[in-house]
Inverse folding.
């Protein structure tokens, strides 16, 4: 790996970027390769599982469905699950990258800053206390939880004279996350049936979500992804500091607010779909920055593409190693991602923000 | 304020002293309240009589066999977690460097769950937890060693290890049957219910042995917080001090987890709360330990009474109280 190059967003504010076509082309090609990898992993996700199927069966299932159990499995389970995995992975990777850039905090992560915990509390309330099982209903609880958490964490972490240092924000996130997790566990503790039903969701799982759920959550995920990917340029300028960003013509408050909205959409929908997954949002942007450098216009799309590769890969491995059962994707993500993360943390200075 | 006594002198901050004294008072008050109240109220004079062995049989049973050991375990475990957290936060110069965040408590849990699933007795579970904690600490330290251990790298490696171990814990939970899973989950959120003297005494012994070590490294640790080179220039042998502190911190964390399960957030929150109350520039060991003791015993009291007859695990309450209080302090923070 080459050392992270520092592109200078300041030079791009006025006029054309300096001639660095070669690097731009390399990065674009890399993104295409990553996309190709994502397609491959998705196809593998449809084909592999408790029962392996040829890819032709997958196409037949949609083009010429014959009502066989194979086709039903593919149409009702494998394809929605894979699509959900792509959406959730992209959401978490992008949310992590957005948060790390916005807070200039290498430890920012939907889990560490308490946002997934907020969303999880919302879902726990909806499912455990009110018995609402419709995803289109409880996703709003997740949004409310995520928005509430980010509002509280941000106002705690950014208040005061210095406008919030990185450790202060992380502390605020952990403190708020602690309270939310405690409330969720207290709710689950009251009723052991709910605990039994929700313990799989609580460790993070893509299983058990129907095509219907995936479809209903898709608009939220797509909206969040589209909004998030547009924020690369203003975030680049904000990375120089609020004053420099303002001088470059960035609407600081609006950029912050839009980023917060994107993060809320992404984390809320992802948590409602797959449980409070963490670590992907922390590790993937770190790894991406180590390769592509600091330019957010590349970091954001790369994170959004690489994260679902990790998530789907983890999901497939989890399905294969424990046939006919499976290991939850949250467990597999940490099992696969954590050693890589440790290696990165050990072998080189993690690309600083 | 400097206190001189012959050749020795000590710097004492009045505010730290006041906070420490106040925390000590609160700890005593909470302990008395926990022993005295409940379904069967024992008046305060009767507690002393029961402890001295001169009370009524009922009072003696309730005080000596049920409530006192539980309170003692809470005080000791809380102090051990607070102290361990203070040591590691000081070593890593980072609030996130506390043992519950860098995988040590998770490692202890893994050891404990393995023992639960294997159907071990309480002693085996405790041993598994201690072993898990020590092994994790050694691995995290070894993995972050690269021409010395740098605080931030240790935190990152620790977070990775934490994720891995939490995954292992969830895997073990979902693989096991619902009864084992429920037992392990109750232990995992941390609980003080049913703790007897045989839980309290190992922690007391460990604290008695390790407290002098902690007192010995407390001052050099403050120096090392300013940077290794600065500390060396002040005549401090950095590596031995750090090694002693790490051993003490790991053992305290392991013993405490073995006794009460991985009560999350006490180690993280206590030093931060203590530091903000004392307005000290760095981490303070004594007030952190006392803060841990107060936090844990008060939380246990609330966990027993709040939703009675449903008993909440104390870890849930420490998280709620510690988190809310920390958020409250952060609100008007000046750092």
């Amino acid at each position: 790996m080459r050392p992270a190059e520092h592109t200078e967003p300041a030079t791009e504010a006025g006029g054309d970027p300096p001639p660095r076509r070669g690097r731009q082309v390399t990065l674009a090609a890399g993104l295409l390769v990553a996309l190709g990898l994502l397609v491959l992993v998705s196809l593998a996700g449809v084909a592999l599982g408790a029962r392996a199927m040829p890819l032709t069966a997958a196409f037949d299932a949609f083009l010429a469905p014959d009502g066989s159990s194979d086709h039903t499995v593919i149409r009702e389970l494998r394809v929605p699950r894979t699509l959900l995995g792509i959406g959730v992975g992209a959401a978490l990777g992008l949310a992590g990258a957005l948060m790390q850039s916005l807070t200039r905090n290498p430890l920012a992560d939907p889990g560490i800053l308490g946002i997934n915990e907020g969303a999880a509390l919302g879902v726990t309330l909806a499912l455990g206390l009110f018995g609402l099982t419709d995803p289109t209903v409880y996703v709003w609880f997740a949004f409310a939880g995520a928005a509430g958490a980010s509002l509280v964490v941000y106002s705690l972490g950014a208040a005061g004279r210095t406008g919030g240092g990185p450790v202060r924000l992380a502390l605020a996130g952990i403190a708020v996350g602690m309270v939310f997790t405690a409330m969720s566990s207290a709710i689950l503790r009251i009723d052991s049936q709910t605990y039994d039903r929700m313990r799989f969701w609580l460790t993070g799982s893509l299983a058990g979500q129907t095509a219907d759920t995936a479809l209903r959550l898709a608009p939220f995920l797509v909206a969040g992804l589209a909004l998030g990917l547009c924020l690369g340029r203003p975030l680049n300028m904000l990375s120089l500091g609020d004053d420099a960003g303002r001088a470059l013509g960035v609407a600081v408050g609006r950029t912050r607010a839009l980023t917060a909205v994107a993060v809320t959409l992404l984390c809320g929908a992802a948590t409602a779909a797959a449980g409070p997954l963490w670590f992907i949002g922390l590790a993937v942007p770190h790894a991406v920055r180590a390769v592509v450098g600091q330019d957010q216009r590349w970091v954001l799309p790369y994170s959004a593409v690489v994260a679902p590769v990790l998530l789907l890969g983890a999901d497939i491995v989890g399905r294969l190693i424990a046939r006919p059962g499976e290991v939850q994707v949250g467990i597999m993500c940490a099992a696969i991602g954590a050693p890589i993360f440790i290696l990165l943390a050990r072998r080189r200075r993690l690309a600083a923000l | 304020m400097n206190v001189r006594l012959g050749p020795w002198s000590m710097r004492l901050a009045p505010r730290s002293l006041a906070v420490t004294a106040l925390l000590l008072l609160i700890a005593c008050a909470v302990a008395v309240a926990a022993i005295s109240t409940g379904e069967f109220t024992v008046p305060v004079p009767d507690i002393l009589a029961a402890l001295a062995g001169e009370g009524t049989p009922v009072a003696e049973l309730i005080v000596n066999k049920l409530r006192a050991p539980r309170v003692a375990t809470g005080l000791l475990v809380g102090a051990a977690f607070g102290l361990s957290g203070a040591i590691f936060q000081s070593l890593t110069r980072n609030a996130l460097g506390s043992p519950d965040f860098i995988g040590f408590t998770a490692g202890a849990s893994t050891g404990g769950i393995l023992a639960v699933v294997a159907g071990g007795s309480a002693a085996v579970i405790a041993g598994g937890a201690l072993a898990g904690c020590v092994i994790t600490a050694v691995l995290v330290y070894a993995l972050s060693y690269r021409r010395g251990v740098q605080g931030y790298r240790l935190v990152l490696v620790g977070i990775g290890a934490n994720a891995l171990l939490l995954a292992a814990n969830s895997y073990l939970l979902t693989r096991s049957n619902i009864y084992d899973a429920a037992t392990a989950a109750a232990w995992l959120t941390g609980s003080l219910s049913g703790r007897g003297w045989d839980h309290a005494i190992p922690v007391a012994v460990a604290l008695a042995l390790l407290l002098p070590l902690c007192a010995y490294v407390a001052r050099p640790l403050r120096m090392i917080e300013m940077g290794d080179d600065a500390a060396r220039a002040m005549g401090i042998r950095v590596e031995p001090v750090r090694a002693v502190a790490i051993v003490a911190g790991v053992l305290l964390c392991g013993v405490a987890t073995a006794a009460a399960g991985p009560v999350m957030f006490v180690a993280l929150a206590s030093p931060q709360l203590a530091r903000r109350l004392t307005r000290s520039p760095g981490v303070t060991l004594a007030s952190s330990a006392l803060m841990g003791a107060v936090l844990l015993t008060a939380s246990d009291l609330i966990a027993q009474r709040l939703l009675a007859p449903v008993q909440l695990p104390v870890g849930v309450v420490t998280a709620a109280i510690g988190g809310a209080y920390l958020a409250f302090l952060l609100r008007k923070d000046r750092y």
Remarks:
- Residues 57-92 of chain B form the longest helix (36 residues).
- Chain B has a mean pLDDT of 82.
- Chain B has one domain: 2-331.
